Amino acid sequence: MNKSSCPRVSIYFEHRFLPPVFISVFIIGLAANGWGLKSLLRNWKKLGNINVFVFNLGLTDVLYLLTLPFLVVYYFMKSQWIFGDTFCKITRFCFNLNLYGSIGFLTCISVYRYLAIVHPMRVKGRITVTHSVTISVMVWLLVSVQSLPDMFYPKTSPNSTGQCFGTTSKMHVEEYLKYSLGWTLTGFCIPFLITLGCYGHVIVVLCHTNTIDKVLKQRSLRLLFILILLFSVCYIPYHVLKNLNLWSRVLSKQRMCRGWFSRVYVARQISRGLVCLNSALNPLVYLHGHEDIPAQLRQQLQQARRMFSHLFQSHSGREPVAQSAGDV
Q1: Which whole number is the average pLDDT over 254-264?
Q2: 102: helix, coil or strand?
Q3: Rounded to whole angstroms, how far apart are CA atoms 93 and 10?
Q4: Do residues 213 and 291 make contact, with C-beta atoms less than 8 angstroms apart?
Q5: Residue 164: helix, strand or coil by DSSP?
Q6: Is the model's pLDDT at 253 over the cut of 90?
Q7: Are 133 and 50 in contact (CB under 8 A)?
Q8: pLDDT tier at 248 (50, 70, 90 boundaries)?
Q9: Cα angle at 233 between 166 and 61, to 5 degrees?
Q10: Cβ within 8 Å of residue 23, ≥6 positions away
Q11: CB 125: neighbour CB atoms within 10 A?
């Protein structure tokens, strides 16, 4: 144990790593969610009650994506927040709504898929759009209540550094760690266990039942793959490293220095980049919902390929004329 003052952790890594990630996610996520929501509304009657959750999933993504340009400016300016304390809190609140709203709606989709496969006769005709809308409103309220205490922690530094903290300042880090652990339990661990239980049972049923529709099996397996991807890449690393980094800050404040502080900080920044990828990966859920959507995507890609091919051929055909005019 070292009682001397701990060396400061370098924050330059986040300035180099996060802006390119945010820019990429903003462009890809906005295009994918815009296309996905448009396709979802076009196929609304064909997709069933589950489309209510998918629609809300898209809304959480768009809400967060619209805040990314401000964060890009923040990190390009070397952690100088110029948009005010209130907007800093709003930006962080939108991130939390996106993160835990996504987890909540993915959990609802998993439960619905579980009921459709494991208990199809019990729920047939009993689950309506009204039920889905009511559950969606409850998810929004629950996520907002969980995220609201975060707004009361200081998000900007009291001095002239102008930082916009993702968690809180050094002064309140002990209290925030306790809040974060409880938040992780209710907002992530419990939904994750519910999702895990649902799909564990679904896999057992799919493996032992031959009467289930083949298309339904394929959709369920695709959704399972998407959820594994989201949880393993985006959600699990973020929550583990967020709390571990907060613990390192508590130890550093108590002057208990450890050699792993810098490594945890760098890993934490990488997890922040990975967790924002959920806004670009969530549109994959649209693809599992209806067979027409992937077909539409392939059709649009083919149209784009033909258009570029036509433009290239037209441009190539004009080049000799331009060259001869230049020679004259």
Answers
A1: 84
A2: helix
A3: 26
A4: no
A5: strand
A6: no
A7: no
A8: very high
A9: 60
A10: 68, 72
A11: 6
Residue 182: per-residue pLDDT: 96
Tell me which residue has tokens 């509304």: 41
User: What pLDDT digit, counting tens, does each position of 40-57 carry?
Assistant: 777 776 656 888 898 999
Least confident piece of the model among 149-158, 203-212, 236-245: 203-212
226 pLDDT band (50/70/90 cuts)?
confident
Residue 181 and residue 239 in contact, taking contact as beta carbons nearer than 8 Å? no
> Which phi and psi (to 5°) does residue 306 adopt?
-65, -40
Q: How far is CA 41 from CA 2, 152, 229, 284, 287, in A?
A: 60, 37, 26, 16, 13
Identity of the residue numbered 311:
L
Exposure on the CB side of residue 117, measured as CA atoms within 13 A = 29
Q: Are 31 and 286 in contact (CB under 8 A)?
A: no
| Superfamily the domain 12-297 falls into | Rhodopsin 7-helix transmembrane proteins (1.20.1070.10)
Q: Both tokens of residue 8?
A: 């400061």
pLDDT, tens digit, 9 for 90 and up, residues 81-102:
999 889 999 999 999 999 999 9
The dihedral through the CA atoms of 279, 282, 284, 290 has a sign that is: negative
Cβ neighbors of 307 (< 8 A, separation 6 or more) are none
C-alpha separations of 272 from 13, 19, 131, 218 in Å: 12, 11, 34, 32
Q: What are phi and psi of 316, to 5 degrees?
A: -65, -35
Residue 11, CA atoms < 13 Å, CB-side half-sphere: 9
Q: Which of 60, 53, 25 is closest to 285 using CA atoms?
A: 53
pTM of the model: 0.83
Please give the full DSSP string across 211-244, using - where no structure is assigned: -S-HHHHHHHHHHHHHHHHIIIIIIHHHHHHHHH
Given CA atoms 241, 177, 95, 77 in this order, what sign does their dihedral have? negative
